[in-house]
Amino acid sequence: MAVSFYRSVRSQAKTVVLSSGLGGHAQYWQAQITHLQQQFHVLTYDQTGVLPESEILPDGYNLPMMADELRQILEEQKITQCHFIGHALGGFIGLELARQVPQLVEKLVVVNAWDRLDAHTNRCFATRLTLLRQAGVAAYVQAQALFLYPPTWISTHDLQLCQQEQQAIAHFAPLENVEKRLAALRQYQPEQTAREVSHPVLVIANQDDFLAPWQRGLALSRLIPHADFELYPTGGHASSVTQADWFNSCVLQYLCS
């Protein structure tokens, strides 16, 4: 598991942990690192099982296990408290970490997540799984942009996406791991965990998120005792990429308040 620690110029700065969604790769957060370093040390990590050389994940792999893996990373890095930003699955890792070890987390930002798996989202996952099994890795990777990004953003970033897709295909994780991680996400039920988290939480949603309806993010925020909700009109499922300036300002203002 690759871990990267980016130090702030402020030596006494707090640490922000960034946790990616289903893909699980640290590189998802490239547009955030420099901006967050103005105020914080930043830790990113590749989640277990997402690299080509990864060992096969155990049967019954689940979200609490993912949170425990992150806990071990923070322990190894001697981080005793942090802020946390997580995208979709990564947000659930943060909620689980806050539930398991409350003193380890100060504030959380959860991006385009849900209170329960919406039927639409479940259909999207089922479609991606069918693509992987029947059409192969290239089809799975190439379809990903349709679920993550707004059409206009895809239109203006097609070359960039093609290059990223070639890299993703060449460095794809073991298929069994992709299936087990997707199964863990589909089986996860955030409702109870959300009710048990007493930390300040900012839930971010985007109106044009094709994968996860924004109403599910609103519902999640209403389950968390001390949550704020931020709805942005555009950005798709990956607004930290497509609307990076807005996203960075939003989370920095929240974490510093």
Automatic annotation (TrEMBL):
Alphabetical list of PANTHER family matching this protein: HYDROLASE, PUTATIVE (AFU_ORTHOLOGUE AFUA_2G14860)-RELATED, MONOACYLGLYCEROL LIPASE
Statement: the UniProt record of this protein carries the keyword Hydrolase: yes
Protein name: Putative carbamate hydrolase RutD
Recorded catalytic activity of this chain's protein: carbamate + 2 H(+) = NH4(+) + CO2
UniProt key word Hydrolase: yes
Function of the protein: Involved in pyrimidine catabolism. May facilitate the hydrolysis of carbamate, a reaction that can also occur spontaneously.
Organism, scientific name: Acinetobacter brisouii CIP 110357
GO molecular function, one term: hydrolase activity, acting on carbon-nitrogen (but not peptide) bonds, in linear amides
HAMAP family in alphabetical order: RutD (MF_00832)
Origin: domain of life: Bacteria
Boundaries of every AB hydrolase-1 domain copy: 15-240
EC number per UniProt: 3.5.1.-
GO biological process: nitrogen utilization; uracil catabolic process
NCBIfam families assigned to the protein according to its UniProt record, in alphabetical order: RutD
GO cellular component terms listed in the entry, alphabetical order: membrane
One Pfam family hit: Abhydrolase_1
Assigned protein family: Belongs to the AB hydrolase superfamily. Hydrolase RutD family.
Enzyme class: hydrolase
Gene field: rutD
Coiled-coil region(s): none
Alphabetically ordered keywords of this record: Hydrolase
InterPro entries: AB_hydrolase_1, AB_hydrolase_fold, AB_hydrolase_sf, Pyrimidine_utilisation_RutD
